Amino acid sequence: MLSSEALLQAQCPTTSGRPFQQSYSTSLCRLKPSRLQKRLSARAVSTDEDVDLDVSVDKGLQKLIDTAGAGVSVTSPDWLTQLGRLWGGKSDVPVADAKAEDIQELLGGALFKALYKWMVESGPVYLLPTGPVSSFLVVSDPAAAKHVLRSTDNPNRPIYVKGLVQEVSEFLFGDGFAISGGDEWRVRRKAVGPSLHKAYLAEMTNRVFGPSAQNLCSKLEVVARSGENIDMEACFSQLTLDVIGKAVFNYDFDALTTSSPVIQAVYTALKETEQRATDVLPLWKLSFLHPLIPRQRKAMEAVQLIRATTEQLIAKCREMVDAEEQARFGEDYINEADPSVLRFLIASRDEVSSRQLRDDLLSMLVAGHETTGSVLTWTLYLLEQNPSTMAKAHEEVDRVLGEKAQPEVADYQQLKYLLRCVNESMRLYPHPPVLLRRAQIQDELPGGFTVPPGQDVMISVYNIHHSPAVWEDPEAFRPERFPLDEPVPNEANTDYRYIPFSGGPRKCVGDQFALMEAVIALAVLLKRFDFRMVPDQDIGMTTGATIHTQNGLFMTVKERPRQQQASVSGKTVTSPQPVTVNA
Ligand code: HEM
């Protein structure tokens, strides 16, 4: 295997340190706006030719707007590449040869796949022009990714910030700590992080992860009896909303049995953040236009729904916390009736505004829902596609669970192979597939690339995880590449070759929560059922912050032979207990 440094040197000569963005902006500013707009309109591509707009914007711009609120992003048509070449100065950083047709077939699909193609052509560090005054420095090298991630919001090395992520998702996360930076972020992260302590995760295992998965089993039982098929991606999205609702707010969305508008709202809002990041003309920056643009209207409606839900839940919880409980607050504080993150934060008497609390909790709701849902979707898909791996997973689940219908914490620790299946699935399908950062000052990446101040950097986790220079046989689903007697893979023990939860100070705060939730859900489901893909299905791939299928993941479900299943009446089984706000 090539080391990351060797890969950099072999494929990418060093740059002379030209400030990329500055050279684009100054050069392009010389173009008359009307000419520029004409060019943009001519090249803009859309998947929806019949966009129905009730706004009076320029015809050419209409194609950039997606009334569906999902699916259309426009990035780097080839004239921008040519401009990149023309005004690229003396820099040796390769400019991606992005052709409109490369993008066209991926629109509404998996745009991050184009990043892979350009990595193969241009090397692990290249420049991707994305607009008249913007570009991304795309990084697909573990050493460079490690450097950037560890220098983000690092008080000792404050080089990178979230930058564009903050700009494009502020409408959703507001003051939430997932997008803030500097001291503001540090204080909030210190307050929220401890809420996910070990005792809390153990409590979640028994009260939330297992019982919620059992609720999904009840739904699947009906499907198994009828012989119909079911969209497992939708099921996992419902399951993870139920889990995060109970874990963060002690609230049961009951998404598995009633349709919850929050699911669509979260998807619409996340898709909007992605679209904002890749729009050639950032109309979203003109907030006075929002009421006139259907896509923006939809996004704002989605955010209002999520905020209103969060505010109601906080108000209910505030009423319940009394002084006695606050006095009992300690590092591993758990309220027996309500062990939620919300209760923890209110009981900690954290001096924080209602808005800050709302946005922090909203951050956790959004960050912890779709991500785990997508991990479950792709893990089940990969297991179904690889029968020998599925057989090993079944064997482990049956052996470890025995008569139990759901694992306890000690069992979770024994479900090592299933955890490696989840780890490997997150290598092949990382959520999100790219991480964004912005350089605040000039920097130099390992390998000698100079990053000018203000440069947006896109770390392609997907590329790192799929690069043949980093992984042997990268496209194969092989959980065995992470041996059971070695530590669970993470960014530190793989030297940033494996970064599904990011790394450095901004690493995911819910990584252990998510792994436990996913493994427990899969164990409960595999114990009970056999899953088969509906034949001749084109599941496709698209993104909305996480990697989704395009058409759902339809499966038939069959109860496994009785002797392998748990005895639901057995003493070891923790029966599902619905969590309610008033509990
Ligand atoms: C498998 C599921 C999950 C995946 C793949 C995932 C992935 C990530 C990644 C990659 C980041 C870092 C983004 C960056 O560096 O720009 C992140 C941040 C974050 N995640 Fe997760 N996450 C998952 C589950 C969760 C859960 C369950 C929660 C909450 C309980 C959560 C809460 C957060 C928060 C609050 C942040 C922001 C942290 C900060 O900026 O300090 N995530 N997640």
TrEMBL record:
SUPFAM superfamilies: Cytochrome P450. The keyword Iron applies. InterPro entries: Cyt_P450, Cyt_P450_CS, Cyt_P450_E_grp-I, Cyt_P450_sf, Cytochrome_P450_Monoox. Heme binds at C508. It comes from the Eukaryota. Its cofactor is heme. Residues 560-583 are annotated as: Disordered. It holds the Pfam family p450. GO terms for molecular function: heme binding; iron ion binding; monooxygenase activity; oxidoreductase activity, acting on paired donors, with incorporation or reduction of molecular oxygen. Residues 563-583 have a biased composition (Polar residues). Keywords: Heme, Iron, Metal-binding, Monooxygenase, Oxidoreductase. GO terms for cellular component: chloroplast. Belongs to the cytochrome P450 family. PANTHER family: CAROTENE EPSILON-MONOOXYGENASE, CHLOROPLASTIC (PTHR24291:SF134), CYTOCHROME P450 FAMILY 4 (PTHR24291). This is Cytochrome P450. The lineage of its organism: Eukaryota, Viridiplantae, Chlorophyta, core chlorophytes, Trebouxiophyceae.
